[in-house]
Amino acid sequence: MSASSTSNFLRKLFERIPLPVAIIIGVWAANGVLLPLYLEKWNNSSQSQVEVDNSELLAIDKTQQVPAVREKLPLSEKLIDFNSTAGEKLLFESEARTDYLPLSIHFVTQSNQAYCGVASIVMVLNALNISAPEAPEYKPYDIFTQNNFFNKQTDKIITAKKVSRQGMTLTELASLLAAYPVKTEVHHGGDLTLAEFRSLVVNNLAETDNFVLVNYLRKAIGQETGGHISPIAAYDRDTDRLLILDVSRYKYPPVWVQTEELWLATRTIDSTSEKTRGLVLVSR
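and the corresponding structure tokens:
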């Protein structure tokens, strides 16, 4: 089954599921719950089998200390963690959330600390069911990954090696997307009023088959610390908050941010392009 067929199947499946159940499943997927649970079950069962057959090979040196795992960075009080009662309630009550389900189905974590743009692009291309190149690790299935996204055409814009060192600008983000059969609109934060920014995002979130990626300065919304790119998945009118599906899940969870604060964060200057950050709207 191709990535397109799988996505269509999942979309039809979710149409038959009551909204509260569908949202909960999406929340679990977006926060990486289902896979860890499966892996834990698999590891436990396989480990017990190995211990029975090869117990002498599994002697543990208890003098070795396992390095401490660093937890996610603390959130500013201005942000609402999506993986919280308040965060989930906002999704239930949000007026514009059409993009949430397809994005959550294809949600990925950036594969290195400069690949936020690449991870965001891959999510959107898969959510739009764009014909994907071969993915050797999933052969015979085709799907966009952070490993197979770059090609000769995208290399004319910026190479994977360069992105790995410095990330990408708003213009490069749009140009990389446009190397595939999609339409893009670039909107620099410095060119938009708050009302225009809100209207562009909310209208997009209320429609199907289009998505919005935001390029913003983390520091401006109370995070650490530089420029970042992620998809926006929903809008709650009562609190005037937007849901960012942060692709650096090792660092921050998806968060609800005040629209004005995100707008201000897109009006900051990118030192590489010397232009303000902003939005890229993507459609077929």
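(Above: one complete record from the training split.) The two ends are 22 Å apart (CA to CA).
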